Amino acid sequence: MDALAPKETLITLSNAGVQRGARTLVSGVDLTISRGEIVTLIGPNGSGKSTTAKLATGVLRPTMGSVTRKPGLKIGYVPQKLTIDWTLPLTVERLMTLTGRHAAGDIDEALEAVGARRLLKAAVQELSGGEFQRVLFARAMIRKPDLLVLDEPVQGVDFSGEVALYELVRQIRDTTRSGILMISHDLHVVMAETDTVICLNGHVCCRGTPSAVKRSPEYLKLFGERAASTLAIYQHHHDHEHQDDGCVVPDGHAHDHGDHEHDHHDHAGHGHAH
Ligand SMILES: Nc1ncnc2c1ncn2[C@@H]1O[C@H](COP(=O)(O)OP(=O)(O)OP(=O)(O)O)[C@@H](O)[C@H]1O
Description:
Blueprint: E1 9-20, E2 23-34, E3 38-42, H1 49-57, E4 64-69, E5 75-78, H2 92-97, H3 104-113, H4 129-141, E6 147-151, H5 159-176, E7 179-183, E8 189-191, E9 196-200, E10 204-208, H6 210-215, H7 217-223, H8 227-230, E11 232-234
Parallel strand pairs: 3-7, 3-9, 5-6, 6-7, 8-11
Antiparallel strand pairs: 1-2, 1-4, 9-10
Helix pairs in contact: 3-4
Keywords: ATP-binding, Cell membrane, Ion transport, Membrane, Nucleotide-binding, Translocase, Transport, Zinc, Zinc transport
InterPro entries: AAA+_ATPase, ABC_transporter-like_ATP-bd, ABC_transporter-like_CS, Metal_Ion_Import_ABC, P-loop_NTPase
Pfam families: ABC_tran
């Protein structure tokens, strides 16, 4: 971010939480997201990441604390799961218009921005995990949101696809200057460009830059000995090339994975979550 530019705050959560009956789903969350900023929520299953994101977007109202949003804030959402009848034929073009009418030019522009314009007429069922995620990004970006919420953006994607998707998130942030709230359910990679990582465990366990969180005693306590290797930080360096669609040029073709901290990297169980 330009350090001299005034920060435009999009969303503020102050000591926010949700209680359902006697049960506290999440509590005491302080969080701000400004334009051009990337905030990533991490934490174990059931730790309150989705609940916190729902508080931020207004899907859920806080029963404790407060949540404020910039008036007229436009939010683009990339869901973790999409309910689609996978037995029916569906093109990318049609998927882009399922939840609203858009001019052909706007659809082209949104797909272009994610390197997926050539997929316009493709069947959604035949897309790779990475291509499918890109189309979902385009679908979320078509209304030119102030804030993009990405719920597990790299699911169903292999390692080089993951690198390319994180690169795309960085590009989107740089070109649109939208705020980005990411939820990382698998804890495996946090983008180095993340301005703030918030580690939840029913409350805010710890927060800070990715490398600060990785070293924090609370984080180590929560995730144990293997924590430091579990939180891999994806570093972006311009030492590799990208194909036109944003994919990283494979090893041996002017690309080197050496700059990515990836000691522990488990893709088991990643599939299309439909
Ligand atoms: N509508 C609801 N009513 C009651 N409890 C809920 C509701 N939604 C979520 N919960 C509970 O709130 C807690 C936090 O859930 P949440 O979905 O925010 O966790 P999460 O960190 O996103 O988990 P995961 O990584 O497994 O998706 C969980 O214990 C969950 O069972």
